[in-house]
Amino acid sequence: MTFIVLDLEYNHIDNRNKLLSNTLHLNRPSYMTDEVLQIGAVKLDENLKHISSFKRYIKPQFLVTLNKRVQDLIQIDMNYIKTNGVKFKRAVYEFMNFIGENLKDVVIITWGYSDWIILNKNFEANKIKNINLNDAYYIDLQRVVMNKEGIKIDPSLKGIAEKYNISACRDKYHDAYYDAVITKSILQKIGIDDLYKYNYFISFKKAKDINKSSDESLLKNEVNKEILCDGCRCKAKEIDSIKFYNYNRRDFRMNKLFKCTGCNTYIYKTYIYDKQKKGLMITEKKAECNNMADVDRMLEKFYAIKNIK
């Protein structure tokens, strides 16, 4: 058994990238709103001892200018990435060689679930079909820490590193490799026993037992948790929901729409139940009330799904 601690840095779409993708005919899929710029990873053995490291910059194909907020975070300009980067497919094949051949003996660790979603979207946009990372076992270390420490609001990597007195790479946040190193250090502080003890999974007897009438009661401890806005810390009120439905052969999903009672930010949560791994993951998107274009897109997406289901 080997552990791969994975982290990504990625660019987020903005109006300039939308314009350029159309002008330059970049054939950007509509779902490609986050393009991977850097992959960083650390490989550990079954005792969480360091084996090797991986770091690659990736030349963008769809989002060719840096979102200003992203550039402020990563402190690297696009020229550096284009000069030092490789194509996404090459980076992926090198990463798979780094992981090893038998994915069923691999546990992939990330901080939060968004990197996993974005990586799969980038696989799809780049038409990589002969690699299935879902064969590996996946653990969201952020959720493990929340369960272990009794934390209700998603904590930052920096905040937990400080809580656990981890000083390595303290000044290098938002670099995929160094964030992976920090995540590795948190994992080593937690240890293997607590990693599995506090892993974020809810088990069912049989996947086929899940249906629209029973899911909400089975998962009520998770889907009915009080939601707080991480911006103003006020309670978010649920304004609509879509009960669990078959999303594909692998997933059941539930969607919930919230609105903060303080700052009026909209929060869109998706609860994803993996039939194969029998685990629940939660994703979250936000739209601030002063950006009506984002709010409209969020509501349009939510009600498009609701009208189908």
From TrEMBL:
Exonuclease domain mapped to chain residues: 2-196
InterPro entries given in the database record: Ribonucl_H (IPR013520), RNaseH-like_sf (IPR012337), RNaseH_sf (IPR036397)
Keywords, ordered alphabetically: Exonuclease, Hydrolase, Nuclease
SUPFAM superfamilies per record: Ribonuclease H-like
GO terms of molecular function: exonuclease activity; nucleic acid binding
Cytoplasm listed as a keyword: no
Protein name stated in the entry: Exonuclease
UniProt organism field: Clostridium butyricum
